[in-house]
Amino acid sequence: RYTHQICQVGYMVTQMLQMALFGWCLFFSAHLKQTLASCGKWSFKGKMAGDFFFCLVWGILLWLALLTISGGLVRNYIVFGALVGCVVYQKFCHRLLAKPCLLIAKTFIFIWSKTCFVLLLPWQLCHRFFWVPCGKIFYKFLSERQELDEEGENIIENENNFST
To answer: Is 115 helix (H, G, I), strand (E, B) or coil?
Structure first.
């Protein structure tokens, strides 16, 4: 009988520690997102979109964590574990991980900019070597046509005059 109760208490402590880790990861990712937003100089709309997707992703992750850890039940010790994880990060780890968060954010921004450059390079080259010259040829053709129209030598006959 006592071994069953000890197993139950051990199971509850394990669930509480898992949720403490979840809360710690939540606050770490929030700190990382905040650092990323300040390094990337996000606009107000960018910050709002980032906050929306952050809450959406972590809401889904919370739901999945509750399903896997406790079968979808929200118990007091599970909520307490998540709050303990958040408090531990905020009180003890926030300042210790500020520089690593900054390094991670700058690395992410660097990789993102290089990836965007590589992915957009074909379109930039196409624009530079195809669309710009074609546009110049088209505008040159239009300007020559307007000069001929002004001299009275209309290239295109008036569409309203039908000669039968």
So the answer is: helix
3-state secondary structure of 127: helix
Contact between 98 and 36 (Cβ < 8 Å)? no
Which tokens go with 109?
Answer: 């921004």
Eight-class DSSP state of 33: H
For 102, phi then psi, to 5°, come to -65, -45
C-alpha span between 29 and 7 (Å, rounded): 33
The alpha carbon of 3 is separated from its chain's Cα centroid by a whole number of angstroms, namely 49
Instruction: Measure CA of the first residue to CA of the last residue in the chain; give whole Å.
Output: 110
What is the token pair recorded at 54? 């952050």
Series of mean pLDDT values for 10-residue runs along the chain (164 residues): 76 90 93 90 89 92 87 85 92 92 92 91 83 78 67 54 54
This prediction has a pTM of 0.65
Asked if 86 and 26 touch (Cβ cutoff 8 Å), the reply is yes
